[in-house]
Each structure stands twice: as C-alpha cells, then as structure tokens.
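Summary of Year 1 activities. Much of the first year was spent building the evaluation harness for sequence design. The harness presents a backbone, in tokenized form, and records the residue chosen at every position. We chose the following record to illustrate the format because it has been used consistently in internal testing since the harness was completed.
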C-alpha cells in the first residue's frame, strides 16, 4: 500500500453553554447568523422515548458550542445502592421552556440555513422536544456521500477520514473498512493511501 502524510489537525475553540446567561447569549448569535451546523445527542435512537442530552452548534469552522439538556451522567454507572444512575435535567422547567421556545424560533426560520449529519434522525428529536419543524435545511453530508458512492459507509467518521480529515476513532474505522477485521480482507482497497 502507498503511504501518505496525515493532515495536521488544528483544534478550534469549543465551549459548553453551562449557564443560562451563556445559553441565552449564544441563541441570540444563532438568531442573527445566516447559517449554522447542528447535531443532536440523545439517550437512544427512538425519539419518542429517548431523552435529549444536548445540541452542538457551529457557526463557523473551528468554533462550536454545546448546549446541554441533561447532566452528563451515564446510565451504566451505579449509585451507592448498586442501582444504575440516571441523568437529570440540566435546566429548571422555566429555563427549559424558555430555551425551547427560542430554539423553536431559530429552527423554524427559513432564512437561517442549517446543515446536519443524518438530518432525518435529528429532525425526529427536534420535533419530539417541541422545537420543530426545522426549515432552511441546505446540506447533509450523509445524503451527499450516499449520492457519490452508495457502496461505502456514510457515518461522519468514515466520510471525514475518506476525504482526509481524520478525527476520533478514524484509524479503527478506516483499517476495518480498508483491510477488514480478523480474517476478512477487502482486496479492492490494497492500493489505497495509508496515513502514518
């Protein structure tokens, strides 16, 4: 296999909107912007029963903010009595209602363009959490990649690695795809560039 240089990764500025004041100020930025990218994190795949953990937003490259909806406690941890812990709502009920109302206005504005990876999934969660419908959707990398090549995986890790922007578990995802796992091999990818 040929080898190539791994692109240099520059880390940007990321913040958690962990105070009501920060959350309100950021939503004001969303209301004034012309385009943003968002992503939903939830406790499950079925929007009607899953709880919204938070929403990530990016208004420009290298900058993003995470708006939590639930405290970051995973269900797999146990409390003192040996029972699984559950994450609790991050905001008080009046704060949550206020944030949902303002985000609903942002998501419904057609003039504000929105992009998202796997939009069909996130739209269900936005609607289930009283912030939909979403208007002004302009791009979904998953749909675009499917139009380019329906034979490859369409998750964000794979797409970004395939096009030279690795992050997270990129090496595991790419190795599994290029060369298979265990005895399974993909001879079709013997000549693909491997990064050092």
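For this record, the design step produced the sequence shown next.
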């Amino acid at each position: 296999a040929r080898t190539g240089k791994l692109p240099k990764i520059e880390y940007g500025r990321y913040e958690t909107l962990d105070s009501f004041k920060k959350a309100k100020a950021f939503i004001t930025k969303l209301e004034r912007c012309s385009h943003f990218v968002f992503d939903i994190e939830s406790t499950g795949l079925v929007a009607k029963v899953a709880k919204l953990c938070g929403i990530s937003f990016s208004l420009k490259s290298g900058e993003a903010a995470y708006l939590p909806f639930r405290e970051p406690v995973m269900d797999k941890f146990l409390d003192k009595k040996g029972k699984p812990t559950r994450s609790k709502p991050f905001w008080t009920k009046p704060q949550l209602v206020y944030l949902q109302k303002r985000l609903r206005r942002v998501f419904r504005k057609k003039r504000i363009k929105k992009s998202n990876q796997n939009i069909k999934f996130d739209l269900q969660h936005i609607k289930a959490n009283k912030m939909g419908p979403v208007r002004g959707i302009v791009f979904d990398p998953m749909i675009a990649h499917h139009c380019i090549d329906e034979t490859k995986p369409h998750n964000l890790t794979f797409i970004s690695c395939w096009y030279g922007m690795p992050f997270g578990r990129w090496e595991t995802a790419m190795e599994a795809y290029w060369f298979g796992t265990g005895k399974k091999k993909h001879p079709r990818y013997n000549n693909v560039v491997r990064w050092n």
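The longest helix spans residues 93-108. Quantitative recovery figures across the full test set are reported in Table 2.
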